[in-house]
Amino acid sequence: MSGLATILRKELTDQFRSKRYIILFLLILLSSGLASYGAAQSIRDELSRATASTFVFLRLFTTSGGVLPSFLSFMGFLGPIVGIALGFDAINSEQSSGTISRVLSQPIYRDSLINGKFLAAITIIGVMFLSIFLIVGGLGLRLLGVPPSSEEIVRILVFLVLCVVYVGFWMGLAILFSIFFKRPATSALGVLAIWLFLSVFMFIVANLVTTYVVSDKLGQQLTQEEFAARQQSVRDNVMRISPSTLFEEASVTVLTPTVRSLGPLLSTQTTRLVPNPLSLGQSMGLVWPHLTGLIALTALCFGGSYVSFMRREIRST
Amino acid sequence: MVDKPVVVEAINLTKKYGEATAVNLLNLQVRQGEVFGFLGPNGAGKTTTILMFLGLTEPNSGSARVCGHDPVKDGLKVRRTTGYLPENVGFYEDMSGRENLVYTARLNGISYNKAKGKIDDLLSMVGLSDRANDKVEKYSKGMKQRLGIADVLVKDPSVVFLDEPTIGIDPDGVHRVLTIINQISREQNITVFLSSHLLHQVQTICDRIGIMVKGKLVTEGSMASLGKDVSGFDRVKIEVQATGTVEKLSDTVGRLEGVKGIERSGDLLIIDAERDIRILISNAISKQGESLLHLKLQEFVLEEIYMRYFH
Q: Which of A87, A185, B65, B159 qualifies as a cystine partner to A171, CB 3.0-4.6 A?
């Protein structure tokens, strides 16, 4: 255990002192600060016109202010970059600099190294996002003058967990690639390619699959509304392969209590809907599969990294 | 030497990578306090053997014992008492030399306070005291190699494995590294297992040498006994240079008893002789009224070992 603690401590020191961390932190801080500032402005405009409004504080994270995207969409976009940047050279840089064989020839278990790196990276992500959330929260409090309710705080904490798990997934994938590819540039490009595919091209794949699965023939047997709903649900389910989709759907649901369904609703189904807005428990019920899915994907990345790292030959030449 | 306990032992050790056999039925014993030179050309399986001794690679068959522990089952115990200096050793470049050593000490479960004095001693032994707080990225290759030796000694090992410790550094650096290795062996009684393909560099400090080629240990023994094995007959080469023309010298020497052949190399004559006839040569030259400028017995043993085993 002393090995793991030592490695964890060193990795944390290294990361927090690194220029890479400072750059990432500033990037996220700037974009989220601007996003929530823009959001606060438009919420204030609204508040001055209408009187009653619920969950004002949550809208700090979901409202896009004018030209700027919302905090939520910034997270969906920048989160993977943070994760990839923290993990893409985790193992291969140690391999190419020849430090790995020196460290592993010490009396430590081999998995201490990979566990230490993973734990350190997750801790760093947690600390980074917690501080960003606190800063944004403080800014929102100052600009809106409305304190968050306890339910809002819990919802924001759930969103924080979602962010950490989501970024953790990309970090895990990057570490996995850093074990498979010898050169950091190759592993970084590899993960970036997957990220681009999952976040941009997945939409095209989903459309292709939908036209294939839900054929026109089927359309003749169904009403137009049912057909559209069927198409939409197939498309959604294909899109949910991508962690970006999982993250966005889950976050929107958690941060917007009025969201009652993640799929299309037929007019016949709307008659017995639960009252709006949803309670926290019901929102959680809606996104539970998303959250467990994200955690499972992250665990899969870690498991893959662990196994391939334990089996690999460590010689540097 | 014979009655000292065996600390590093390989019994039919075999490692295969797919079809290729990196180490083939290796049998080897190194006794406490020895400096063992593990020699062989590149790709002979030297590093693989060392990794198996450390429990960092599992053998396909056969077994190893280091300090009484089996590296496969008790890798941790082996690595607690052995140091390993990898070929092209790397350090964390943005940390200072001292910080790197402190990290190694911590990985060995030694607290900073306990390790501090030891690390200072080691840094001064390898001549890095004044550069200890500089970042490693500013170190030369030779300095990194010396830091590597200090790093290996932080844990107070009883055996150290040094993989190509003299590769890629300048002659002065080689000399310093070899002196340090000699020192730790003589003064601290640490067993040194040293791999190299540069026989001429390490021969001076090795008590015993084993030569590995294509995964097999082809021979082992002291330098002297290896030389005899290799040449098989007593034949020596002698370099001579004297005043007067080379032709005349060649003529003089050629008539001596025991000379088998004469080669000319610039102003030098290289004489192939049945035995060491330096006294005869020197006498013959002075009889001719010339003066001897250079006379040397060539140590051709090394070359012969190379020719015989490395190719």
A: A87
Q: Cα-flanking dihedrals φ and ψ of residue A155, to 5°?
A: -60, -40
Q: Residue-wise pLDDT tens for chain A (317 aa)?
A: 568 999 999 999 999 999 999 999 999 999 998 898 888 888 888 777 766 567 888 888 888 877 788 899 889 889 999 999 999 999 999 988 889 989 999 999 988 999 999 999 999 999 999 999 999 999 888 888 888 888 889 999 999 999 999 999 999 999 999 999 989 999 999 999 999 999 888 888 888 888 888 777 776 777 777 788 888 888 888 888 889 889 998 998 888 887 777 776 666 666 666 677 778 888 888 889 999 999 999 999 999 999 999 888 776 54
Q: Best interface-test mutation with A: which of B103, B111, B149, B158 has the largest number of A CBs within 10 A?
A: B103
Residue B195 distance to chain A (closest CA, Å): 15
Length of chain B: 311
The residues that bridge with B221 in the sheet, in sequence order, are B209
Best of A1, A21, A106, A311 to disrupt the B interface (most B CBs within 10 Å) is: A106
Within 8 A of B85 by CB-CB distance, chain A residues are 102
DSSP three-state, residue B9: strand
What is the rounded distance in angstroms from the CA atom of residue A165 to the CA atom of residue A308?
Answer: 22
Of the candidates B48, B79, B103, which has its C-beta nearest A105's C-beta? B79
Q: How far is CA B194 from the centre of its chain?
A: 6
